[in-house]
Design goal:
Layout: H1 2-44, H2 48-62, H3 65-77, H4 83-96, H5 99-110, H6 117-130, H7 133-160, H8 176-193, H9 196-208, H10 214-227, H11 230-235, H12 241-275, H13 279-282, H14 284-303, H15 307-317, H16 332-335, H17 337-360, H18 369-385, H19 393-416, H20 419-426, H21 430-451, H22 455-485, H23 491-527
């Protein structure tokens, strides 16, 4: 009994070390290649098919499907990618995750990398502790990579202690009911470990130790593939429309892929036995990872021609929220701050455009200023959530520029609350009415430039227009003061006009300053 407990603890510890190694290696790889991967996803994804290829390759490199999927959701959320294209990335990420099984089999079982894992961990940590920059990150990744195989070795040793205790006969039989039960166990294992990779590694280890047979292992792996969808599905609670669509897409796609994989187990075994009666038994581990790769690849091949229809189906299930001016994904500020900054820019642009539209309509009630105020507050909270390291100098500059722009937008929106009241005063003066109409014409010009993404030109035009308006307003102010002095205008009416002129000048300045800082934020984003 004591030996069994020792083996159990050793196996559990092995799973823990495997998960720790995967986490360390993934973090290191994201630091090394995360930016390049995001750029590649954007550059090469122009259809669901190309999205599937980039998604598969990105996940193979990063060893994290969640990192790939989060990036694609972020691109959709900020309007840089179509949802159907992002679906291709999500499908491809499923293929990319199967590379972990190949690493376990080839380096853990065949080449016995665990024998040199400890020196590799030492070498990696020397780089991490005594060097900086890329060398330190490479060392961190190497240490994580080696730790994976220490974990696999512990799992193998722990499983050997269960030889003769846990056998295929102790698990559900090879029937449809039995296979469904094993799929359920696979889902449960993924929920507990929060990693299908760890589950697949443990399944391969049990198969290697002959505590389960191939059919049982295949059903467990199918369950683990389905189980990976539960975590992103839970993450959709309270998330944006794009986050919800991604979560539901993952669940529906993996569910149908799982059904197909269950139907594929028997023919797959038959093909192996047709080649050689003992081929699958002698190469069970390779056969299992090949099966994992096969059913995920077939699933992608079958769904890609219908990706656009699939996207429309998901969009019908999760319709867009028309209440908000935009959608902010709250998973991005901590996981993908660069994308969160882009998302903030998009939200600021739409809110600014809505504000200009509100002014142009003379606060006729067709646009709710309280809705715009709520948007400004939401963007402020979102920017506060963004986590940047000190090394991200360009991102810092971008964030600061966005905060300046947001400040001017907030003050502009505050003054918009008085548009209705100030318009009544403006209408009392033909000169002020003419300047107001010119201001609205300038804003219409800005709106067109923003819609055509001509932000640098918009900043220049806004500055020039504001100078002209302020000159006209200052000239009119001098005329009003002169009229008050000559008693041609009573003090109350004169002061009323002067207050409106002051309000008017601040409105024009905030429009100009927002345009300047918005363009600056975009420039920092391009060079960052």
């Amino acid at each position: 009994m004591e030996s069994s407990f020792q083996s159990l603890f050793q196996a559990i510890g092995g799973v823990g070390l495997f998960l720790l190694g995967m986490t360390i290696m993934t973090d290191g790889l994201k630091q090394l290649a995360g930016g390049h991967i995001r750029a590649a996803l954007m550059r090469f994804t122009n259809s669901p098919t190309s999205g599937a290829m980039t998604g598969a390759v990105s996940t193979m490199i990063l060893q994290s499907s969640s990192a790939t999927i989060v990036a694609s959701v972020g691109f959709v959320g900020v309007g840089m990618m179509q949802f159907s294209e992002a679906l291709g990335i999500i499908f491809g990420a499923n293929i990319g995750t199967t590379i972990t099984g190949w690493l376990v089999v080839l380096f853990g079982f065949k080449f016995k990398l665990a024998q040199i894992a400890l020196p590799l961990i030492f070498f990696g940590m020397v780089l991490k502790l005594f060097f900086k920059g890329k060398l330190a990150t490479i060392g961190y990744s190497v240490a994580g990579f080696a730790l994976i195989f220490v974990g696999i070795s512990l799992m193998q040793e722990g499983m050997q202690g269960f030889e003769g205790i846990i056998t295929p006969d102790n698990l559900p039989s090879d029937s449809w009911i039995g296979r469904l039960q094993l799929v359920g166990l696979g889902i449960l294992a993924t929920l507990i470990t929060q990693s299908s990779s760890a589950g697949v590694a443990a399944t391969l280890t049990m198969l290697f130790a002959h505590t389960i047979n191939f059919e049982q292992a295949a059903a467990l792996v199918i369950g683990m593939d389905i189980g990976t969808t539960v975590t992103p599905l839970l993450a959709t609670i309270g998330g944006s429309t794009d986050v919800k669509r991604t979560g539901y897409s993952h669940v529906i796609y993996n569910f149908f892929t799982g059904i197909g994989a269950l139907l594929l187990i028997t023919p797959y075994i038959y093909i192996w036995e047709s080649i050689s009666p003992d081929a699958l038994m002698q190469n069970a581990e390779i056969g299992l990872v090949a099966f994992h790769t096969l059913f995920n690849t077939l699933g992608v091949i079958l769904v890609l021609p219908f990706a656009h229809y699939f996207a429309r189906f998901i969009q019908k299930i999760v319709p867009s929220d028309t209440i908000h001016l935009y959608q902010l994904d709250y998973t991005l500020p901590t996981k993908e701050p660069k994308l969160a900054l882009i998302s903030s820019q998009q939200a600021l642009q739409k809110t600014f455009q809505t504000t200009l539209d509100y002014i142009d309509r003379d606060a006729d009630g067709s646009i709710s200023i309280s809705k715009v105020e709520k948007s400004v507050d939401e963007i402020q909270e979102y920017l506060d959530e963004i986590v940047l390291t000190e090394s991200k100098e360009k991102e810092w500059e971008q964030l600061i520029a966005l905060l300046h722009g947001l400040n001017h937008l907030e003050r502009l929106v505050d003054r918009c609350e008085d548009v209705g009241k100030e318009r009544q005063i403006i209408q009392k003066s033909k000169v002020l009415e003419q300047i107001w109409n010119t201001f609205k014409e300038h804003n219409s010009q800005l709106l067109e430039l923003y819609k055509s993404n001509s932000f640098t030109k918009a900043s220049t035009v806004a500055l020039t227009n504001t100078k002209v308006l302020i000159e006209d307003l200052d000239k009119f102010r001098d005329e009003v003061i002169l009229k008050i002095a000559k008693d041609e205008l009573d003090n109350y009416s004169g002061l009323e006009l002067l207050d409106t002129i002051k309000w008017f000048k601040r409105m024009a300045k905030h429009v100009s300053r927002f345009s300047f800082y918005y363009d600056k934020a975009l420039q920092e984003g391009v060079t960052g």
